[in-house]
Design a protein that fits this description.
The complex is a heterodimer of chains A (380) and B (293). Chain A is α+β, with helices and mostly antiparallel strands and 380 residues long. Chain A is built from 13 helices and 18 strands. In chain A, the strands form 5 sheets. In chain A, strands 7, 8, 9, 10, 11 and 12 form a 6-stranded antiparallel β-sheet that branches. Chain A has a 4-stranded antiparallel β-sheet with strand order 1-6-2-3, covered by helices on one side. Chain A has a 4-stranded parallel β-sheet with strand order 14-16-17-18, sandwiched between helices. The radius of gyration of chain A is 26 Å and the shape is elongated. Chain B is of the alpha/beta class and 293 residues long. In chain B, strands 3-4-2-1-5-6-7 form a 7-stranded mixed β-sheet, with helices on both faces. Chain B has a 6-stranded mixed β-sheet with strand order 9-8-11-10-12-13, with helices on both faces. Classes of the chains: A alpha+beta (380), B alpha/beta (293).
């Protein structure tokens, strides 16, 4: 789960990280009001859940109230990578002597929370990682000890090269680690972490993502969720026991199992079609799941054919077929469908479906070809 | 031989009185797995399907000599269940539970490593050594005893491939579902080493998917250390970046973890990558023919 910069900064502040004062605004009027209480420069920042705001013109420095109002009226309503800016953050500007990067992630290889730090802050860290990986220092943190004082100081020293600053930085790193673990984060990033000419350190930008599996014990984090239309569909599907991700193609897929669902999408592409989605209905023959899944696929206006791909394991294919038939009878849609059943009792299952007049096939490749063919008939 | 589980496996089922635990314990027993005990706090003394139930893992181990455990408890309690098994001296723990928080697994893997416990999963279908032991939720009837080792991050995709192997008369030594989570127990390299040392395994199938770089690391390991042939399949070539594809670990983040990178790494290591799952038996036959020629 992703959150906005202003929300990440709220968490940062709660854990005592140094964040410049800021105000969240939804309109130019709110900016006008907020600026009445401010003197000095502010940064006007678009709040959208994608990276690259700066490049898109979504971040502007304002030296006066009027400049802030002008910037706000330009940025509010702006389109950044398909998202409309509805909120902006007015943050007090600070003088920058040098910019750093610090971030925490869960590292699969070391099976630990890993701190990444770089003296090359302010730019997109993915670029640094790709082009000059040697400039990013990585420190796996022992989960049984946490980030120890001396370790944090050492990292601070590597970044700032000054004992006093290293101590300050150490406190920031330890707080960042604590909030990362306590909020079940998957990313907690300060980029840039800024050093001012008078040797103060500020977290100027913040990014946080969270572990979906841990949201059950993080109600405050979950309450921060702002889902877009596609994500709402994904969340709704999740509540029905389905796992759904929308894509841009026209062939809807309904599959049991995540790996097989991905392989099904790949197969459609391999044979020249475009998959409309990822959809894993899980392991049972429950007709309600098929009904829910079918409704999701039909609600996607791009979809003009559906490929159902089921491997019957413990749930035998004849049970799966009965569930499918019951579900399709309930829906009464004229969406062209091809069903592929394989595994335990596949022949019995296929016979049942044939009786119902449903196009059935036995292999994934045949199913993909047939689905593409059906979608082309629909188009013409 | 085979790896990890066999006729000598003495299995304990943690969460045996729950719906899933009870159902799958029955199926594993039917397959011939030696289930010696179950646990469920507060239900000690009961008998489920002929299996004695204990309150704690420690007690079950003491009374029955269980050496392997399978966990069916809800995700929120999975970390504690794994640790309970580890501290009770269980050698191999298989965690089926789906949805375990990453921070829990980071803490758990650090502790069990210290204790010397092996873990498979979480969020996995378990493993099987055909005709000897089924420890998981895999459909036993599609497997056949033989010489192909197979490991995979996915469930049904594994069954799909196994079914094709069995129908091509290529039996399996041990098939392991390592699970779809980003932080998990035994992974490709650990298992590759076991397959390489297992006299019963002649060749290995590696089924990977997007997210992380375990496949790339496996490719490097194969090039350096494996004498047995390995073939692979990677799912998720059409997956969009930044979206979790069902499995918590199946996500392309910041442009890394793509199928393309993994396929490239395997090509470099001379590991054939099937364009679709149905090509796997053919690729294996080619590789094996070369060796036996």
């Amino acid at each position: 789960m992703k959150i906005h910069e202003y929300q990440a900064k709220e968490i940062f502040k709660k854990y005592g990280l140094p964040v410049p004062n800021d105000v969240l605004c939804h309109s130019v009027e709110e900016v006008e009001k907020a600026m009445a209480k401010k003197d000095g420069m502010v940064v006007v920042k678009a709040q959208v859940l994608v990276g690259g705001r700066g490049k898109a013109g979504g971040v502007k420095l304002a030296k006066s109230k009027q400049e802030a109002i002008d910037a706000a009226s330009q940025i509010l309503g702006m389109d950044i990578k398909g998202l409309t800016v509805e909120k902006i953050l007015l943050a007090d500007a600070v003088d920058i002597e040098k910019e750093f990067y610090v971030g925490l992630i869960n590292d699969r290889n070391t099976k630990s929370v890993t701190l990444m730090a770089s003296a090359e802050g302010g730019v997109e860290i993915e670029e640094v990682a790709k082009n000059t990986p040697e400039l990013i220092h990585k420190f796996p943190i022992d989960p049984l000890n946490g980030l120890l004082d001396f370790q944090a100081r050492e990292i601070g020293m590597q970044l700032f090269g000054d004992v006093k600053l290293a101590r300050k930085a150490a406190g920031i790193l330890q707080k960042l680690y604590t909030l990362f673990v306590e909020t079940d984060a998957t990313i907690a990033e300060i980029n840039p972490l800024v050093l001012t000419p008078d040797h103060k350190i500020w977290a100027i930008d913040g990014k946080m993502n969270f572990d979906d599996n841990a949201l059950y014990r993080q109600p405050k984090i979950e309450a921060m969720r702002e889902a877009d239309e596609d994500e709402l569909k994904e969340i709704d599907a999740h509540e029905k026991g389905l796992s759904y991700v929308k894509l841009d193609g026209n062939i809807g897929c309904m599959v049991n199992g995540a790996g097989l669902a991905m392989a099904t999408m790949d197969m459609i592409k391999l044979y020249g079609g475009e998959p409309a989605n990822f959809l894993d209905i899980g392991g049972s023959s429950n007709p309600q799941k098929v009904v829910d899944a079918m409704n999701i696929l039909i609600s996607d206006k791009n979809v003009n054919a559906v490929m159902i791909n089921i491997f019957g394991g413990i749930t035998r294919c004849d049970d799966v077929a009965r569930g499918l038939i019951e579900a399709l009878d309930t829906i009464q849609s004229d969406m062209p469908i091809v069903v592929r059943l394989s595994g335990t009792n596949a022949d019995e299952g296929l016979a049942l479906l044939k009786e119902k007049g449903l196009p059935t096939v036995q292999t994934m490749s045949e199913a993909a070809k047939k689905a593409i063919e059906l979608s082309q008939v629909q188009k013409s | 031989m085979s790896i990890l589980v066999n006729k000598d496996t003495k299995l304990l089922v943690q969460g045996i009185t729950g719906r899933d635990g009870r159902f799958h314990a029955g199926r594993m027993k039917e397959y011939g797995t030696n289930i010696v005990a179950g646990t469920s706090p507060g239900k000690g003394g009961q008998v489920v399907d002929g299996v004695p139930v204990f309150d704690t893992v420690a007690e079950a181990v003491k009374k029955t000599g269980a050496n392997t455990s399978i966990i069916f408890v809800p995700a929120a309690f999975a970390a504690d269940a794994i640790l309970e098994a580890s501290y009770a001296g269980i050698e191999l723990v298989i965690a089926i539970s789906e949805g375990v928080p990453i921070q829990d697994m980071i803490r758990v893997t650090a502790i069990i490593q210290r204790n010397g416990t092996k873990l498979i999963g979480p969020n996995c279908p378990g493993l099987i050594t055909p005709d000897e032991a089924l420890v998981g939720i895999l459909p036993g009837m599609i497997f056949k005893k033989g010489n192909i080792g197979l490991m995979s991050r996915s469930g049904t995709l594994t069954y799909e491939v196994v079914n094709m192997l069995t129908m091509s008369d290529m039996g399996q030594s041990t098939v392991v579902g390592i699970g779809g989570d980003p932080v998990a127990g035994l992974y490709y390299i650990d298992l590759l080493e076991m397959y390489e040392n297992d006299p019963e395994t002649e060749a290995v199938v590696l089924i990977g998917e997007i997210g992380g770089d375990a496949e790339e690391q496996a490719a490097e390991y194969i090039a350096k250390h494996m004498t047995k042939p390995v073939v692979s399949f990677i799912a998720g070539q059409t997956a969009p970046p930044g979206k979790r594809m069902g499995h918590a670990g199946a996500i392309i983040s910041s442009g890394s973890g793509t199928a393309e990178e993994k396929i490239k790494a395997f090509a470099k290591a001379n590991v054939p990558v099937a364009k679709e799952p149905s090509e796997i038996p053919g690729l294996l036959k080619e590789k094996l023919a070369k060796i036996n020629a």
